[in-house]
Amino acid sequence: MRKIVIAGNWKMNKTPAEARELAGAIAANDKIGCEVVICTPFVDLFAAKEAIAGSKVHLGAQNVHWAESGAFTGEISAAMLKEVGVEYVIVGHSERRQYFGETDETVNARTKAALAKGLKVILCVGESLEQRQKGVTADVITSQIRSDLAGLTAQEMKDVVIAYEPVWAIGTGLTATKEQAQEVCALIRSLLKDLFGAETAADTTIQYGGSMNAGNAADLLSMPDIDGGLIGGASLKPADFAAIIAAGSAK
Questions:
Q1: Integer Cα distance of 245 and 55 in angstroms
Q2: What's the structural domain count of the chain?
Q3: For a disulfide at 238, which of 25, 103, 158, 229, Cβ 3.0-4.6 Å?
Q4: What is the pTM of this model?
Q5: Helices (H), 3-77
Q6: 93 catalytic, yes or no?
Q7: Residue 20 in 3-state DSSP?
Q8: Residues 162-209: pLDDT tens digits?
Q9: What percent of the chain is modeled with pLDDT above 70?
Q10: Domain boundaries, position 24
Q11: Catalytic entry in 65, 93, 102, 127
Q12: Catalytic one among 35, 95, 127, 165?
């Protein structure tokens, strides 16, 4: 059975005091039946860690650098995150690619650095609206998966979650239909089979990350190759996030 992972990406939201309150509210959920992760801003990690202590909620960060240390102003290393108590880290989010110059090469380097320090990676891939309209979604996803996972082993893939996040459905209110999402998630699983073998492909968690919310989570999660969600805005609302967690727990 694949692990169902519901991860909240808080993006650039919440002060440490606000993070403590929100994380505490999420951690108070006594009906969690799947893997739940909150990926907070760096300054919120300590507060969130204290708030979720002893609960079923896991701590995640939103980025990691490929170097162990050095002159990389504004970046953070895997070792730093590990010592704070981080378990998961998001790599290659479309906003990092769009606004901060992330490439498949740097995504691959960051992924390897995180895995080398024992972090679990939520690796994001997805196409833009223009690419979908041109009919090249499969080409884009294939290129990203092959490049972003280049040089990884089947053993390392045990600590990798793939998040399919159609760029056109992030923060826009648009959502892929469950059939559209399933089609791409199935493609990703097929690519993983080619790269790492059938067992790894069958065992890898593939999330949907395009505006999943309390209203559509159960529908999306009913698809055979959708094993969770990378949740943006809805993860900032305890009741909505709890509803998504419930859908994940029921899968």
A1: 14
A2: 1
A3: 25
A4: 0.98
A5: 16-27, 45-52
A6: yes
A7: helix
A8: 999 999 887 777 778 999 999 999 999 999 999 999 999 999 999 999
A9: 100
A10: 5-250
A11: 93
A12: 165
